[in-house]
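Bench log. Compound arrived from synthesis this morning; before running ITC I wanted a structural hypothesis for how beta-D-glucopyranose sits in the protein. Inputs:
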Amino acid sequence: MNSWTLAYDGFDPRHEGLREALCTLGNGYFATRGAAPERGADGVHYPGTYVAGCYNRATSLVAGHEIENEDLVNAPNWLPLTFCAEGGRWLGEDGAAGSGQRLELDLRRGVLTRTFQVCDGEGRTTRVRQRRLVSMAEPHLAALETELTPQDWSGTLTVRSALDGAVANSGVERYRKLNDRHLVPQGTGGAAPEETWLRSETSASGIGIALAARTRVTRGPGAATAAVDSRPDWIGCDLEVAAVGGRPVTVEKVVALHTSRDKAISDHLTAARASLARAGDFAELLESHTLAWRHLWQECAVDVGDAEDQRILRLHLFHLLQTLSPHTADLDVGVPARGLHGEAYRGHVFWDELFVFPLLNLHLPETARALLRYRWRRLPRARAAARAQGLRGAMFPWQSGSDGREETQHLHLNPRSGHWLSDRSYLQRHVGIAIAYNVWEHYRVTGGTAFLANFGAELLLEIARTLADLAAYDHRLGRYVIRGVMGPDEYHDAYPDREEPGLDDNAYTNIMAVWVLQRALQALEELPEASRRRVSERIGLTAAETKRFGRIAARMRVPFHEDVISQFAGYEELAELDWAAYRARYGDIRRLDRILEAEGDSCNRYRASKQADVLMLFFLLSAEELRDILRRLGYEDRADDPGLIPRTVDHYLARTSHGSTLSAVVHAWVLSRTDRAASWSFLREALRSDIDDSQGGTTAEGIHLGAMAGTVDVLIRCYTGLSAHGGSLRLAPTLPPELPHLSFHLRYRGHRGVRLDISAAEARISVPPSPLPPLAVECRGRSASVAPGTSRVLPVR
Ligand code: BGC
């Protein structure tokens, strides 16, 4: 197995869901899990297809309450394909399962190959080789090629190819009690086998989905007869072929998928049929698809040498690019936390974009911008949410879907206790901080005041306003405070002795709110006068308000205890957890919240975090930036205390269960300058989180996109110290000893395919030929100007 291949030998029902998720193929418009085409959802297999941004609402009755959820819809299944030999059993039926299976995902070309053989119970053996792709070149097309070779028989081979609209959102065990029906059949038709089609509509959002398929025998004796069978939500055709022992028969299924939300269509069914009519055969589709991937890899490759790490990094980039591709730039979608790979978190958009954006800024800036537009379009909704709380500005939801309302569920199930519990995670107001941070980073990296003037500043200022209004002046403390919120650590949602939910003065929220207010003021300064006036007038931002921004940014409260930054006010009152005892009793205690709740206890009573919370500050801000903020807030002693950051890191490191895959990424980053061995070990952990399914069964329900992108980001920004400063790129590499060499490409200020080769001794920067001005680079105080078509080497020490 090379570092471009993910392969699985044999079949293991316990791991099938994981394999399906990791073998998902997609192109940013839609994705399909790597499920066996002959299987439906049967408790082991789960053939899900998800179209980016295609959501639907449904109401369910849970624990006596009517609740409404919005889900990323499992679209009709385009995969179904099976066969039988001489009237025997169909592949997939009892007694005709495949054996000796090998599944191979080619990461370079985005092709999933499956080989196996099947014996039909009557002594007839057929060898099968299937290849599939979801075209990166033509985002509405996918194809499945199946080669069937009778080993020891000759006779009629019947191939059944179908489109299945009778699917549900039943991929996540915990959600099984909820209404999982989102599709209303709208009919089937076509002239099989050259064309069959199926139309469906989501029940509440009314999104029309159309599939059109062509099934052809492209090698072998040719189809003798074809028969069609159809229902309103299913259409299949049978092709009969006179097969001869030892001679392969190849069947190609080419499929087009459109929805009523697509651009440049009249209606989705006509569009699907027209796309199909124009589509080439498998070989042609493979060629353009391979080329599209080649171009993507030329711009996004990362090379670390070590074959296994290399393979996982490619897998992570591969899934990132399949979820958020250049095609995404033309869509109205956000960053789905679990990719387009499964149904966990219902395809919702959280703050995880904070971990995904840096890579997109440096590789696919148009896609990054489109994701910010997703937020910007939902400003009216976020403004209404702020107003409903008596606040100005825009309050973005913790979980976002189609229209930007709060999609966080009211109740969630603890599978360990069977209890339905109130979900207060919507109190994570820091989601707005993540959006503002991304606006600023996008501006810094791409250098466009036009972006700020057009919509970036509006987003940033509206978020800043809400944060400012969340802050109240406490006369007793002589400081601004933010009460009743949650930080990123979801294990604390209330004080143990307080009725109402939320915590006061979450340090991450307060300090980052100050940072956002500072950036809002800076944006106003850096905008050309006319743009500043226009955006301020448009949103009604007054001088009194911006003055208040300045006052809050100078007097926000930051809680401390035992010479470390407190996660929130009153943190010091919490009990210490006996970590050793819990580890001994339960082994894996990542989901400590579920363990304690099932014991009738609660994480709220303990100094025990799910994930990095205070430490997020050191992830987003440099030590200098943090000290500067503390100093301006009047915490000079703390700012000048060189031990504050290391002590704070140690304190929370010892009290975090890493119940989110994001946690290892943040810890790898935070420890990179002080404990390189520990940093490397957290990075390895983050690298293994999906491939090994280290959160115990969650990857089958969708990949962890934030952690996947985060691992690549740790390499290319953290270990290299890469940052954008005005027009120049700054480097300050400190590669861990396990990483002797690192190369990657990026895009910066119009230069595409800039290559960086970094070792412990030097950094080489190569800029491809172009008519652009030279690229300014800085490494540990030395500057260079790299002309297009040349390279420069700078020492890193
Ligand atoms: C984490 C959140 C994250 C969400 C979606 C949760 O487990 O605690 O920080 O946003 O998953 O990935």
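What the model suggests: Residues 449-470 form the longest helix (22 residues). Residues 50 and 340 are 6 Å apart (CA to CA).
ITC booked for Thursday regardless.
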